[in-house]
User: Fold this.
Amino acid sequence: MEELYRRHRSAVLSYARTCCRDPHTAEDLVSEAFARTLQVVRSGGGPEAAWLPYLLTVVRRVAAEWAVTSRRTELSADFEEWLSNLPDSPEAGSSEERILRLEDNSLVIRAFRSLPERWQAVLWHTAVEEEPASKVAGLLGMGASGVGSLASRAREGLREAYLAVHVESASVSEECRRYSSLLAAAVRRTGRRSNKDLDRHLVQCPHCRHALTELTDLNERLGSALPTSVLLWGSSAYVAARMAEAGASAAGAALAPGTLGGGLSPNGGTGWWPPAADSPLRSGAFAGGVVTALAVALLVLPMPFGDDGTESSPSQAAPAVTEVEHPPPVTVTATPSQQIPSGQARPAVHASGKPAKPSPTGAGLGTVTWSGTLRNRGITAKCVEPAGTAIVQNTCDGSKDQVWQSVSSKTSKDYSRLRNAATGECIDYGAATYHSGATGRDVIDVGMCPCRTEGEGQLFRFDLWWVENDGSYLVRADRTDGKPWDEMVLGMQAWWEGGDPPPETNAPVVLTYNYYNATRLRYFVEGR
Assistant:
């Protein structure tokens, strides 16, 4: 248990922060998760190799238990909202029961947990944590040269396990079972012609369409698809925090003489909520003593410190801390936009004419359900990004400007805002003014505006484009009767594929209709 604590405390704390309002509660949640794991181990249970995904699941379950106790006020508002929006069923009354039902109904979770634990561990640590082979080899007690081949076998095993649980599902028909082998072939078939029989079946079968989507995600975007399915809550924030931690650790490695063995710094290695100068946790001996004590007790001492070294107040929400700039934070403060490029209009009001009501800190907007890039299906080298207050497409470069977050809506279950990770602002079409675009068709300009709590004019939904099985999505504006954006989609203004090529830089993005199923009006939603 001491070794597990040294290895995984930092990651477990990163996840605990997504559930809690302040660092004190996050530390308590970590302590409880390790304490419960120790109890399970003492009784002869627990995993043998895949410890980290197990510990993260314990964190989420404990937080859900706290939600019905006096500790509910210590949980983050986003986590509480997620719990309140869990699907109801006659068989599941409490939040814990509904979460367990979600786990049981998730084909990815069932497939992942059916794998040998060494496969689970190598998949999580290579694809999600993105740890080097030498570190993963140490976790698994093997040579670094064998990590790659083990990970490859585990990936293939996960695909096979997924198809197995899909076939066993009570919701699939005998026809679905006949087509199951073709699903795997469709995922591997890159650039080759599709199977017409399978295409016809997918048109009629939502279960197999969903299975194809999940298989494609596992095949192409395992690093984001796996935590999304296994954690159920807070996966984007967790992955972002781990990326930030890795970047901060690499940058500050030469300046951390007090780091404990195994790379664990006294403050958990994240760079967030640093200890006060006089904190006993500055002492490696003290921290080591706490770690050792965990092997014989059920308590881990909390670390009560805030951003400035003072005690944090419960009102300070952990996601608002944005010291590390590498990944998108969970909650981003909106910043003033730059100048509008020539010819682009910024939506300033709702279609109703009422002034926008911004949420300058992102408070109360909802849960971050996805974080990634929007890569154009028709011109796959182009990604969506803000340009001042306009929305454009430029060459995909992996920058933070091209990272978008899907923030859930309290009023529209199937829709969410698209918030930019760099600016903290949302894509807005609330002005809803038609004009003739470059193709001579009616379009509505979109722009970057402060995210609004009510969300009107800023909501989108992702509709999988299953006709060609290419994994792309229509990004549809909120379908509201009587509004001019009814059934319009986000896409390139120059959508006509037989015309002139788009400009090399700042190709405009607008709302328009889905003309002729043009590929420039669809997107690969990377990480979804």
Remarks:
- Residues 17 and 26 are 5 Å apart (CA to CA).
- Residues 254-362 have pLDDT under 50 and may be disordered.
- The chain has 15 helices and 15 strands.
- The radius of gyration is 24 Å.
